[in-house]
Amino acid sequence: VSIFVTVGTTSFDSLVKAIDQGPFANRSIIQTADGSYKPGSAEWFSFKPNIQENVNSADIVVCHAGAGSVFRLLQNGLIPLVVPNTERRDKHQLEIAKWLKQKNYAVVSMNVESVNKTLGCYYEARANCVQFSEERFFFQDSLNNLVRKHVINN
Amino acid sequence: MRLFGKKGRPTIVFIAGEGGHLEQANRILATLEPDLRSSCKCILITDTETVNGSDFDECWNIQTCAPKHRSSRLRDVFTYLKNSASVFRLMLTSHNVKMAIVTGPGFAVAPAIGAKILGAHLVVFESWSRFENRSKCGKALYRLSDQFLVQNKELLSLYPNATWVGLL
Q1: pTM assigned to the model
Q2: Which residues of B touch A64 (CB under 8 A)?
């Protein structure tokens, strides 16, 4: 099993450290952002223009609960293991993590301490998840009309 | 009502931070029809130097200090207001800003108000990561915006006059 961990644009050292010091370290590649913890066991990089290749080649994707990362994965039909980054001053990632859990769109570990345990039973947890089915953006015609009215013809 | 006469190509400013905020702005930009896109200038106003705004015609940076770099709250506020004033001056003197599209976060409030003062139509997207609570940006701009859009239906109870538009 290969694992790819992504923390987005904000560091999430406790998650990086938990994976790097856990039982899945030698099967993991971690995108660390600008965190101060440098993994010693797992492969890692800080940023890349495009992480799609890493996502595609992983069996399991672990990601922070940033909406950009989460929605991109879900809209690609993947079921990630999501961990809210509570190291941030703003705790809003807890909100999306709770919502994902309630909707069964992802496997969720509400704290870093349980991430390795959750990884160990990822496939059992994933069996209870459902495919992401939220309504996509349907306002594009109205938005274009607003632009036509207020920007081009004004 | 426009307060100032403008010249040049009509401009839309997108005001967005890094990460998911930028992702939302990129997705909105991608929904513009090609003829509209080529008829106007699209400028990204952001708060992060490393943001890649390559899909936009220009990218302006409003430096704010991230919490981890904070040395003095007062100094950060001063820096933010000073840079917001520079952006306002740029919008006023060199650009024909007709619309501002905001995806947050909080730094977006001052430039959005600036654009509104200049007569721009203000469209605010509440962040897609909000379900139960309003963001600072959403709270500040809800009543000022001309269109306030939410992506998660749950938010309609917090923003009764908003429009639900689905997930970007």
Answers
A1: 0.87
A2: none
